[in-house]
Amino acid sequence: MSKPSTLGGACIIASVCVGAGMLGLPSAGAGAWTLWSVIAISFTMIMMTLSGWLLLEALKHYELKASFNTVAKDVLSNKVNFINNLSLYFVGGILLYAYISTSGMIFSEMLGVTRELASVLFVAFCSAFVLHSTRAVDRISIVLILFMIISFVLGISGLASNISVPVLFAQAEGETSYSAYALALLPVALTSFGYHHSVSTMRDYYQDEHRAKKAILCGTLIALTFYLGWVICIFGNLPREEFGPVVTAGGGVDALMSALTSAIDSNSIKQALHVFSIAAIVSSFIGVGLGVFDYLADLFGFADTKQGRLKTWGVTFIPPLVFSLVAPFGFVAAIGLAGAAATIWTCIIPATLAKTLRQRVPEQDGFVVPGGNATIYMVIAFGVLTAAFHLLAMLNLLPVFKG
């Protein structure tokens, strides 16, 4: 039997990362604009790759089937593990909320119904795949990913051919640097590299930490290429000052697509981008929904029966749907909030696990993340600061781009 290729694992990691989260990057990075957005997204990719490697290092002390939760339970206190699990659930819930709110706005225009009804119809239809079975999610995900790939290639190639270099590197009068705006981009960028629940899967897949390490790096590089291509193509077509209405509308995908429609002449590009945004939101909603569904089924001990799955469906999808109907707010704000909470289980916990296990087992054999304790402290600092930057931006204590 042939060994799995590095490319195969890299594509798994990349597919977990690339989704609706990337749709919020242009709006979140409009203040920082091209150079500082590229720097912020690239730096986030490096930190998130290192944090995944630290989790991989921690896993090497356990059997191949061991999960993130298994290691956290063994190494951390019950309180810390509870916070870790709570942050995981919160991130899943807030992402579902963001996708429901955004889809309601998109589909209300398409179907000619109210936003509230569109949101209910979206949840009823898309969550049915999760309710039915993992196999149903598998099948619909393949279709959605094909739509995403084809529409992304068509849309991005059309945008790339229309890039205006002066627009891409424009500098507003009275502003010497956009660097301060990049801080508020970090939580959104972090959400776009959230693959950590798949690290244990990669280790088991390769039966080798070193090969899993390469797959993780290649996967995050593929995702980075997607993100930078997307951001550069958007910024090269839509001038910075025209992001004002998009930011005012909360950075929603519908607002971004509307602004692009007025800036781009080609109908084929507009349609391709529209299809891509819809496929990305539906795919991410179903993928995140399945993860939260399985997590809550295990947490509450609901049986894998029709009645049990219906209960799990209720606690998974009803709360974010109700919140989206009662208090919808910006797509980018929701994604950023998810990123701030995700710092716990994507940065702080993996680094803490690696540090504790290095102390528990001083003689380290096998895979060890380079950089010693400096890498661990750097990842923890990145996680803490990213969460802090989001809170400061929410309190208007950081520069926020208004257009």
Describe this structure in words.
This is Aromatic amino acid permease. InterPro entries: Amino_acid_transport_2, Trp_tyr_transpt. Its main location: membrane. The chain crosses the membrane at residues 7-27, 33-56, 86-107, 113-131, 143-172, 178-195, 215-237, 272-293, 374-398. Belongs to the amino acid/polyamine transporter 2 family. Mtr/TnaB/TyrP permease subfamily. With 403 residues, the chain is mostly helical. It has one domain (6-168, 178-362): Amino acid/polyamine transporter I, CATH 1.20.1740. The protein is built from 17 helices and no strands. Helix 3 (33-59) packs antiparallel against helix 11, helix 6 crosses helix 14 and helix 10 packs across helix 11 (209-235). The longest helix is centred in the first third of the chain and has 34 residues, at 78-111. 49% of the residues are buried. The model has no long low-confidence stretch (mean pLDDT 89).
